[in-house]
Amino acid sequence: MLEALRETAKPPLTTNRSPALPPSFASASSLAPSSNSTLTTTDSSASADAGTSGDAASMTSSVREHVFEGGLRYHAYRAGKYAFPNDESEQIRDDLKHANSLLLSGGKYFFSPVEDALEAGGEVLDLGTGTGIWAVELGDKYPKTKITGIDLSPIQPTLVPENVHFFVDDFEEEWIDPEDKYDLIHLRNTLHSVKDPQALLERAIRHLKPGGYFEASDICFIPRSDDGTLTPSTPYALRDFISYIAAGVRALGSDVYAVLALPDAMRGAGFADVRRATLKLPLGPWPRDPRLRCCGLLTRTVMMEGLRGVSARPLAALGWTPLQIEMFLVDVRKALMDESVHVYFELHVVYGKKPER
Ligand SMILES: C[S@@+](CC[C@H](N)C(=O)[O-])C[C@H]1O[C@@H](n2cnc3c(N)ncnc32)[C@H](O)[C@@H]1O
């Protein structure tokens, strides 16, 4: 909490920024009702922790609230903006995805050539930081660099390296941080939920130092196979599931495949040296290579555990009832366990530089 207290004195990224909450609240999912009703809860210690009073205290307290729907917990600050839950199960999935990305990429925390800047001491902004696992580990690796993570959900730890700071904020709001500030602005597994990627890129390029990098990575959830075990005509409930989720997310205002258009969008926003790395992320333990086999198992676990949380809001947006969703998920679970199809997804990492003046 000391970190958060210290941060309250510093200028926020947007006018609304509030410090993240203690980790103990991350386990409040046990408060969730099992019905489909919506309920908002508040962390009662909020204003005392923040050391603020009056309007500031009530604002701080409101960012610590959570919304419960259908037994799932969601962020309450800018409620409804992000379609997926923030409860413990979702946090574990995010941390497993983090481990999987590192395993798949050979331990890379970023692809942008900013190593020297971070070694020397720079500034990194992690948009949609989630549990903050990437930011915390980066902070450990580069103790001279300051890492700021922001998220709609107050689900970050408080015991973090001194150079890591978290805030509850909406990164799609205007930033009041100085321009030309960051060496790296990072967005992982989150572009699919950005309502206006163009506006975000324009904002990011303003706030990067000349020569600084923007980097975004997302999994492109199109099931592929190189050995013919899955063809376009193979019945595959997981493929149907993904296209329904994509339609639901579109109905909620964003594009799960936005990463495909990102290189052109970045060039259009003025970035130079835009590159894309594409990695094959297996689904299931079918690869012979032990490392990829492990990646495949992790991917399967992450997807299996997320089916309910990922589908609830997007499929409700298409008019599905919870019962229809549950019935459909039976076939999706079977498809996930089907080892006769050798499926992989592409993980796209796209990065580019703000031109030097
Ligand atoms: C799938 S998680 C990824 C977390 C983290 N980047 C990682 O890779 O471990 C996406 C996160 O983005 C956050 N998010 C989505 N839209 C946001 C916004 N407009 N402002 C702040 N956070 C946002 C969500 O709350 C969620 O925690």
Question: Could you describe the 3D structure shown?
Answer:
This is Methyltransferase domain-containing protein. With 357 residues, the protein is an alpha/beta fold. The protein has a single domain (2-353), classed as Rossmann fold. The protein is 38% helix and 21% strand. The protein has helices spanning 2-7, 46-50, 54-63, 88-105, 115-120, 133-141, 197-207, 237-251, 258-268, 290-317, 322-337; strands at 18-19, 38-41, 66-69, 72-75, 123-127, 146-151, 164-168, 182-188, 208-224, 272-282, 344-353. The protein is globular, with a radius of gyration of 20 Å. Mean pLDDT is 86; it is low at 1-16 and 19-60. The structure holds S-adenosylmethionine. The site of S-adenosylmethionine has 21 residues, from helix 4, helix 6 and strand 6.
Secondary structure topology:
Blueprint: H1 2-7, E1 18-19, E2 38-41, H2 46-50, H3 54-63, E3 66-69, E4 72-75, H4 88-105, H5 115-120, E5 123-127, H6 133-141, E6 146-151, E7 164-168, E8 182-188, H7 197-207, E9 208-224, H8 237-251, H9 258-268, E10 272-282, H10 290-317, H11 322-337, E11 344-353
Parallel strand pairs: 5-6, 5-8, 6-7, 8-9
Antiparallel strand pairs: 1-7, 2-3, 3-4, 9-11, 10-11
Helix pairs in contact: 4-10, 8-10, 10-11
Bound molecules: S-adenosylmethionine (SAM).
S-adenosylmethionine binds next to helix 4, helix 6 and strand 6.
GO molecular function: methyltransferase activity
Family: Belongs to the methyltransferase superfamily. LaeA methyltransferase family.
Biased composition (Low complexity): 23-58
